[in-house]
Amino acid sequence: MHGYAHSFDFDHGGAKFAYGGQRGTALLSLPGSACALVSDWGRAYIFLKDVLHARISRWDGAVDDYLGTHSVDMAMACYLNGRFGTGGNRPSMRQAGNWAEPDGNGRTLYVGKSENGKMLRVYEKGKQLGDKNSPWVRWEVQFGNRDRVIPLEVLIQPGPYVAAAYDCMSWVCEEAVRIRTVARTGQIGYACLQHYASVAYGDLINVMMFVEGDAAAVIEKLRRPGVPKRLNLPDMGVSLADLIRQPNDGPA
Fold it and tell me: How far is the C-alpha of 233 from the C-alpha of 186, rounded, in Å?
């Protein structure tokens, strides 16, 4: 992995660890799903800083706008109005998805390039997860350590670094939204899986009700152990059922 001699996958969260070669260094990679499992970033910060003397080669910081007030269209307007420029230079931009006739499958605006050390992705997160009517938008800044030092403080105070990435992101605040984000992800995933199950097997279940005689017998024949990958969410100290039942405007 990335030139290291040995690499390992963690049991949960998609985290990876690699070592061997590379001037005696090691690599710890934590995707968003693994970050959600860290219960105490203060302790993680101290361990990484004072014990391992770690440095960050890439960090992604995101803010979720569940109401879609700061939409992808707003991000495009900011770009066209020059609010992403630094030193008078407008960064590159590209789009993904159907911008001419939005079809509910989600759109993404990319500003900047990752190889240059800073890139912003603004995308319709709820639609990406399968809810064509969801207003949920995510603004996600990616920093690389080319020509800059990424301070470890981003781990414990991410908000200011996200807000300061571009002038047009001054609206970002440091609201703790981890539980709400996981709950919203579960709600959309649960609704989508219900829809797909109804389309694929709804008529079969209807027939099985006549054959088996009652719903309990049908469920007993169809159910199996485990949780669908889409609903295999980080442990937030709340049951999966309670997460899915949370109101959309519930506490952060």
Answer: 7
Distance CA 240, CA 100 (A): 38
DSSP string of 6-67?
Answer: EEEE-SSTT-EEEESSGGG-EEEE--HHHHTT-S-HHHHHHIIIIIS---BSEEEEEEEETT
Q: Are the C-beta atoms of residues 117 and 132 closer than 8 Å to each other?
A: no
Percent of the chain with pLDDT over 70: 89
- Tell how far CA 235 is from the center of its chain: 15
Q: What is the DSSP letter of 119?
A: E
**Lowest mean pLDDT across 9-18, 124-133, 167-176:** 167-176
C-alpha dihedral sign at 53, 58, 60, 61: positive
Residue 176 CA, chain-centre distance (Å), reads 14
Residue 151 CA, chain-centre distance (Å), reads 21
- Cα–Cα dist 19/120, whole Å: 30
Q: Read off the pLDDT of residues 49-71 as tens digits, 9 standing for 90 and up.
A: 999 999 999 999 988 888 899 99
Q: What is the mean pLDDT of residues 78-94?
A: 83
**Mean pLDDT score of the chain:** 85
Q: Give yes or no for a contact between 37 and 234, defined as CB atoms under 8 angstroms apart.
A: yes
In whole angstroms, what is the distance from residue 200 CA to residue 231 CA? 19
Beta carbons of 110 and 89 less than 8 angstroms apart: no
H-type alpha helices, the chain = 32-35, 41-46, 72-80, 125-128, 158-163, 178-212, 215-222, 240-245
Q: How far is CA 61 from the centre of its chain?
A: 10
What tokens were used for 96? 């993904």
pLDDT at residue 183 is higher than 70: no
Rounded CA separation 107/120 (Å): 14
